[in-house]
Amino acid sequence: MTALSDIMSKQVQYCTPVDNVYEVAVKMKKWNVGAIPICEDGNLIGMITDRDLVIRGIAEKHPGSTKVTDVMSDKLITASPEMSAEEAAEIMAEHQIRRLPIVEESKLVGIISLGDLSLARNTKDDAGIALTEISEKPELHH
């Protein structure tokens, strides 16, 4: 059984509540990522995905100076570093998410993506199942 601590990305780029959505977009481009966690004093308080920028930002005609807290998702699904990759894949499939923040006592310590799961030995099937379930339920995408 593979623990998330063994395969998660530990060097996670993040923004803070005082940042704006333009700064989030710049970080996404610079680091070639599709999600940026929002942390305050190291505590995870939200996430912004590239889809959030489009749907809650651009489509709603918010300027680049809009606060991240106006666009971020704050109802977060998280995991702990001790959780198994199999459990993470199940959670990601159930909640229709492609990235899962890893926290310890509310502190962001890493992030796992479907790509991370697919690259990890013995978890390729779990990632495939999660991706299939995410892709098959378009009514749950938000």
From TrEMBL:
<dbReference type="InterPro" id="IPR000644">
    <property type="entry name" value="CBS_dom"/>
</dbReference>
<dbReference type="InterPro" id="IPR046342">
    <property type="entry name" value="CBS_dom_sf"/>
</dbReference>
<dbReference type="Pfam" id="PF00571">
    <property type="entry name" value="CBS"/>
</dbReference>
<dbReference type="InterPro" id="IPR051257">
    <property type="entry name" value="Diverse_CBS-Domain"/>
</dbReference>
<protein>
    <submittedName>
        <fullName>CBS domain-containing protein</fullName>
    </submittedName>
</protein>
<keyword id="KW-0129">CBS domain</keyword>
<feature type="domain" description="CBS">
    <location>
        <begin position="72"/>
        <end position="127"/>
    </location>
</feature>
<feature type="domain" description="CBS">
    <location>
        <begin position="8"/>
        <end position="64"/>
    </location>
</feature>
